Amino acid sequence: MLDQLLQGDFAARPIDYRIVTLSLLISFLCGHLIAWLYTWTHTGLSYSRSFVKALVIMPVIVSLVLMVLSNSLVTAFGLMAVLAIVRFRNVLRDTLDTSFLLAVIVLGMAAGTQRFTTAIVGCVVVSAIFLYLWGTAFGTRQNFDYIVNLNWKRPLDELDVLSKLLARHSLLTTCAAQNGSRSGGTDMSYRVMLRDPARAEELIHELRELPGVERVHSIPAENESEL
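Now predict its structure.
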């Protein structure tokens, strides 16, 4: 009885239990690697622990589903009917999250159809691409350290004094915005790449001491939303 149970399912084309175990194991390992990679490289406000867990279990489920469907066309149609009744809806806030989810689904499909080499090589290549995109900050539009906002009370033709102060502390400075203020003066916004990021407080202190400069505040550039 036990031998019959382990030798395969009672279907048109039985699957050996060792193949089933190997498929599920490869699916789990691939999903776990992608989930770990997602946890390590994720940035933004949409992080979810349940989503990370889904990345681990999803390829295993997909692999199991494909092994079940490979033996019976009738079962495949039955599963489609069940999935039509049970609706799975989840809004992903980050587009990259969709890529992670699609990756684990495809890896589960590869393992479930016993394409083990494809699953392993695909997992390595996809992981390398995710690491490249994260490590190189691909798609980032700027590399400034700080955003400095201030109100300039003096005439605009005297901005050279402010520019020289910023240049003394910065490798690169860009004026991103310049607007008249209702309270008087001109509101200025600068993107600054510092020569020494550790001396940011020194720059802010000198700006506040500069005659004609008011309401100085700064934020790290990485805190600015970039969609």
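The two ends are 59 Å apart (CA to CA).
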